[in-house]
Amino acid sequence: MYGFDAINAANGWLMAAIGFTIVFMGLVVLSTLIANLERALHLWDRRGEIFRRAPAPPVEEAPAAKSPARREEGGPPVGFPVVRLADEDLEAAEHFQLIIERLGEPFSLTELLERAERLGISHPHRRLDTLLHSGLIIEEKGDFKGFYRWRKDARIVPSSMLDL
Amino acid sequence: MVSATELRESEFLKGFTEPELAALASVASHSRWAEGETLFREGSLAGYLYILKSGTILLHFPNGRSLPLRGGGHAIGWSSLVSPFKYTATAVCLTDADLYEFRGRDLYRLIQMDADFGKHLMRKISGIMEERRAYRSMQTQAV
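ok -> structure tokens follow
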């Protein structure tokens, strides 16, 4: 028996299909490993930092909770610090705030910058400087010196609005 | 070329005598860095001391703490004068930054030539080390 008959008789098609599948599965696994190698190495580089990470401190009661601020109808609280930001910084501030919510507080500026860069926020360094300078991101005190938190009681206002 | 007059404006060099400033100016150079650039990395060989002229530099410490240094006068890279001559933090420019750059080897030569200058400089350096000690601390647990 020769040719296709021999292949059919010896389950040749099935064997070829299985072989084909095994090889491609192997290639998929290999390519997934290679694609994630950078992330794995990045985690390995930061292993010390990850294991030493501080536990979250007790949440500090916001001044608003102690004495509720007066609110304008539908508007932000009155009497809280006003931070004036340019329009392009406003958008970045929202993005940074979302990242901070994920990171938890207090957070490390290193991690904040890394995530902002990874998410493709334009000029993350300059934006971070603006947020620090404006007082929206403030440094913790005592044992948490060098870690930061978002000033939740601040009222962000577009600078264009104040110019009016 | 850096002049002694320029250096006199720096907060870090307040109290240095005219001849000391002139000596420092002779080994200083201007250095300009762009936003996002890294001046040096933690653990790398500390070859230079910088004095910030303008801009913001963020120091990242390996324990996750950070210290932003804004505006003129801050000294960065004291490890270039202290054994084991390895930077203890990573310095990243948050904005475009202008700095005065001093090679550690040149500063050591000046210290060898003038003991008073050396004492003066090292006193300033130890002040900065003390100021930033809390940032290098590994303890993060709140009491």
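Chain A has eight helices and four strands.
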